[in-house]
Each structure stands twice: as C-alpha cells, then as structure tokens.
Amino acid sequence: MMEQSLTVLVSRLLAHRVIPRSDALARRALLDDAFRAELDQRLAAVGLRLVENPYAEHIAVALLPAMTEPVFGSGEAWLNNNLGLPRDGVALLVIVWALIILPKRERQISRVEAGREGQHDMFGAQKPLETGDTVSVGISEDALYADFGKQLGGRTRFAANLGRLVNLGFLNRRNKWLEEGPMLDLMIDYAALAPRIIEGALADVLGRRQALLQEAAASAPAAATDNSQVENA
Q: For residues 44 and 32, what is the distance between their CA atoms, to the nearest angstrom?
C-alpha cells in the first residue's frame, strides 16, 4: 500500500509540479515519518528533493544541491534557471517575490509569535500555521510597471515576462492585479534571499515604495472623516 502511494505521489509531483498541502498524500508525506523517509530516498535516487515549508500552501520537488552543477553547468555554460526565463524575467520574479512573499512572511511570523505568547494549549505548537488570503496580498500590475518596467526592458518585455511567470505558476493574474501563485513561495529560498534583499540593493527601493503605500493608507481615513464632517454640516 505504501509502495503504490509513493509511486502515485512522485508521479503527481513530476507531472503537476506542485500539489496542495491539503491533498491526502501530501499530508501523509508531511506527517508520516516512515512515508517521508521513503519518499526522500526515492527522490534522492534521481537527484531530487521535496520542497515544502510550513508557511506555503503547496509542496513541490527541486534539484538536490549536488545536482546543480551537473544539470545547470558551470562557467560560461551555466544556466540560471531551467524554465526558459531570460535574465530580466528572473529579475522580475525576484522583485514580485520580494513584494508579495516578504510582507506575507512577516505577517505570518508575527501572528505565530503572538499566538505563542498567549498560548496555554499544550498541543498548540502542533497546530498548522496560518496561510492563504488572510496573510497574502497582491500587487497592482500598473504600479509594478511604473516602479520597475523601464529597468526591465520596457512595456513589451515586461508584459512578456509577466505572462511567463503566470504560465509557470509563480503568479495569478486577475484584472491587472497580481497575486501569489503556487510556485512563488516554494522555488526561492527565503532564508538565503530575504537578508540579501532586505539589506541589499532593493532595500531602499522597496522601502520607499512601502512608505508611499503607508502614507496613502494613513490619508484615506482622514479623507473619509473630512467627508463625513461635510455631510453632517
């Protein structure tokens, strides 16, 4: 029975690339130690590993670190991805990850820490972490282009790369509003990249953008109050 379940799960991971954590076999892989050990062994035999984190709503597979050079090459032959993304497409991916996943993770971590402070349930640590629409927010496509479009090749290149990211499952796109896709929180190593972004070249740009958003949010209630005073008068 385990043999058949493992075969089905590995086949689905390879065919669909991502599987929701709520799926029965995905949950078994995350909760059943014996099943997970056998799954890891099977994936490792072909140079792969399971990719999951408690903040993401999906699981996927990726290359083992030892397989990076044999698959992607080195030196002048090195490939920075196996998805057909050009360099400006990879840059756009990093930017949307920083704008969507970094704030989402901050909210998730703060809510977990707040819950632990007031947690008196002895089994509280085993409860699932909060994910989904309550913590993940989107970004405006027009605002994204206004901030970074020219640096990423102009309107045509920006639109083409954005379409690639949507097709690859990194983003969901509705009426020029971009939201997290199933791949976005899995295929970039948060622990490795977050400090580089927060403390690096994008820090000032993203900081200024966040300040503008906060100013706009702060002015909205004031405007509503002024309007209500006019109506009451």
A: 18
